[in-house]
Amino acid sequence: MIPQDFVDQLLSRVDIVDVVDRYVPLKKAGQNYLACCPFHKEKSPSFTVSPTKQFYHCFGCGAHGSAIGFVMEYQGLGFVDAVRLLAEGIGLPVPEVRSANPQASRQARERQTSLEDLMEQAARHYKQMLKQAPEAVAYLKGRGLTGEVAARFGLGYAPDDWQGLQTIFPNYLDDRLVEAGLVIENEEKRRYDRFRGRVMFPIRNQRGAVIAFGGRVLGKGEPKYLNSPETPLFEKGRELYGLYEARQAIRERNRVLVVEGYMDVVALAQYGVGYAVATLGTATTGEHVRKLMRHADAIYFCFDGDAAGRKAAWRALENSLPQLADGKALYFLFLPSEHDPDSFVRALGPEAFERSLDDEALPLSSYFVRELVSRVDIEAAEGKADLVRMAAPLLAQVQAPALGFMLRKRLAEIVGVEVDELDQMMGAPRPQRSGRRSYRLPEHSERLAVTPIAKRQLRWLLMNPQWAADVNLPESAPLTDDMACLATLAEKARESDTPPTPAQLVESLRGTPYEGLVATVLQNAMQDPEEFNSPTDEARQQFSEGNRKLLDLLRTAQLEELKRKERHEGLSALTPEERRLLLALLSRDGG
């Protein structure tokens, strides 16, 4: 939503060394800067920042990215918020988000700020009311909470008063109170507080602003937990309770624990397990998983061991599949039926709870296979066929290449077939090649080692955008994903008056189909410390030779494809353009 030319301008104005140094003290080391990684615990510094590449990389945990990526990871922000934060730091006005009505967009932002102010006032009011509610204080103490943890999470109390908020909002008829979800207006246009007689849990966004509340009834009453409705500030499927408060602990442990209740989060924090968050009365969504994967490499889901817990766990797995990424791990822990996380940690202690996470949590791959196998008679051919039928649509959603292959390999072993046979049984189509034209590589041409060459070229171009002029892939060529990405990167680099930095080049593909491929290639490239140094003349020569090899391979593939089409379908099946290309290629090869 932020214009790409603004992102380019921003990255040309900020220096990643200055950005990172605000959060992590850096020390000069040759051409680069070093520090202990802020994303995992280490004794010796392996976190490298390159002023020439405008990139950071940790040789310990693999974290890497641009200045924007660093702010996203360190602060737990989305792309737009990270861009705004960096731009504000250098006084660069952020352009209006592309909208058919910029004025309406500005008014919406002003409205959001206004609603956030109301929510903050309400949070302060509820917090003050807690001090005057001995029954609420007794309830929290009975749950083992101290005043310190209650203050950390901003816990409060909503008095059992139909219009208690009128004491801080004299204009009780202000429509913003209804819009923010603080007040309900019934059919008779009468208004009353949504939360009454409840312990209040403020829900904050990643900037720390209060955007909603959860209220827990004292004693008996329904519903036990009451949440704010969806509002312009709050969308249940995107937010997680406690994430703002847990950021530091999540960073330190490089793990995050997802539980189902507010009290679970607070109780775990009370006992030193500070990296827990909770979904907000809804199933875990793909957006939840995406957000958490920006914060940690390991995500643990904790559920009750009953039927409802197992159902919620499987729903979380299904919604996680499209978000999976190699290098990230998801685990599932099922507690004994008599416990939830709150009661478990209070009864057995935090050490026992964390031992359960480490020893008993199932990796997603194990849980996935175990659950599917449990649903069929795996000894019968019909059961194996049913297993393949159930697995096919789920595996089709997995975008992580290595993990997807390992899942298919494990299922193939269970069914008693090869992976290729399993793919055929699941009806997997041949991979479609993302090219700018309609050609695709013939099957035998794929054995010409096009992919290794293209990935090596991608790696060099990503780290050395000034070499883009050497890339010259024919527009009618049967481009694979790797080569199409290479061509796209070269085009973007050539569009700039001055060669972009690697950071700018990578950010230009954020949100495109090539983002995952670039991330994988970059991750492999940065394992070599030499990539952070100036390139050698020999490397430049190898890059040029690699492009010539790619061109030769593409022309051979084109010629073979056209000859095959002519042989099987006749010369008349070729379009005029294909005939001209065939003649040109035959003439070039002397045939």
Characterise the protein shown here:
The protein is of the alpha+beta class and 591 residues long. It has 24 helices and 16 strands. A five-stranded antiparallel beta sheet has the order 1-2-3-4-5. A five-stranded mixed beta sheet has the order 13-12-14-15-16, sandwiched between helices. Strands 6-9-10-11 form a four-stranded antiparallel beta sheet, with helices on one face. A hairpin with a 5-residue loop joins strand 4 and strand 5. The two termini are 51 Å apart.
Keywords:
591 residues; 5-stranded mixed β-sheet; 24 helices
Would you spell out the secondary-structure blueprint of this structure?
Blueprint: H1 4-13, H2 16-23, E1 27-29, E2 32-35, E3 47-50, E4 55-58, E5 64-65, H3 67-75, H4 79-89, H5 102-130, H6 134-142, H7 147-152, E6 156-158, H8 175-179, E7 183-185, E8 191-193, E9 198-204, E10 210-217, E11 225-227, H9 243-253, E12 255-259, H10 262-270, E13 276-278, H11 286-293, E14 298-304, H12 307-320, E15 329-335, H13 341-348, H14 350-360, E16 362-363, H15 364-373, H16 381-395, H17 401-415, H18 419-425, H19 450-463, H20 481-495, H21 502-507, H22 515-525, H23 537-569, H24 576-588
Parallel strand pairs: 12-13, 12-14, 14-15
Antiparallel strand pairs: 1-2, 2-3, 3-4, 4-5, 6-9, 7-8, 9-10, 10-11, 15-16
Helix pairs in contact: 2-3, 3-4, 10-13, 13-14, 16-17, 17-18, 19-20, 19-22, 19-23, 23-24
| Global mean pLDDT | 85
Main pleated-sheet profile: 5 strands, antiparallel
- Helical content stands at 40-55%
Low-confidence stretches: 429-450
Give me the secondary-structure category: alpha+beta
Strand residues, percent: 5-15%
3D shape: globular
Distance between the termini: 51 Å
Gyration radius from CA atoms, angstroms: 28 Å
DSSP strand tally: 16
Number of helices: 24
